[in-house]
């Protein structure tokens, strides 16, 4: 990877309310404007659309189309990643389209509360994972809201503090505090959270589900497979630590995945520097990588979000997209040449950039992974 770092800042034009997100040169948009697309080609048309406005316009054009186009991974395959952002002064939430620079507004069940009674922690498997606003008198409650079907799954009161949450494909929820031994987990239908602890001196620094297996970074950078039960947490270590030459002062390390491979991602927000390591199981160690085979990694403010590609529409390959420290900020870091572009989601109703703002950093949303 090149050692020279070039930081470029971009401030895209503000969104225009009500503006059409389609382009006259887009062949799929031209089909949308035709009187009546044949039903047998509708799924193929939908799978090529890159904005939710186009998708829902297609569904709404005929009542019969709604049954033919249920929101699913197949028909939303080309949908662009979005940022869930806050609108000032109501602090309701909307979806920001990165390449079109436009907002997609929608109504959340708690959107009428002021100040907001809930905030969104992450998006995974089609669900927004939300928590009630922290109160010294009431423990937080988590609710899973499916962004497209509206299905709501309410979870029991959380008994212990947490800052991180991850979600498995079968909707098992795992909570933890980085640097602590305690892990909380809850499955669909559970009446209570199960609280388990790693044996001293082990502490959990990060966790991630990869192909149904739960991995953890323990005591720094040791990789382990985690087995959770009602009363215990079992760790099976897979190998050694990262070598000293690959470490830098001030870096934050997180787990990630790409194509089923477990990754270790280092980030230095101050230097806008990111590095990626892949777990080589045959050798039991981390190996530095500068190519993802055209895929793209997404980092949320609190952890790994997803991997897309290769050759995903409107997204740069072999790059890492990371939510920044400022509201509406994200970084596009090229693994091939080490350059970092800083971008901002400027839109009408963007909250003021100050420390007293109750808005949280943006959350990545992936319609194609619903």
TrEMBL record:
Residues 1-11 have a biased composition (Basic residues). It comes from the Eukaryota. Residues 12-27 have a biased composition (Low complexity). Residues 1-38 are annotated as: Disordered. It holds the Pfam family Beta-prop_KIB1-4. Residues 96-323 form the KIB1-4 beta-propeller domain. Coiled coil: none annotated. This is KIB1-4 beta-propeller domain-containing protein.
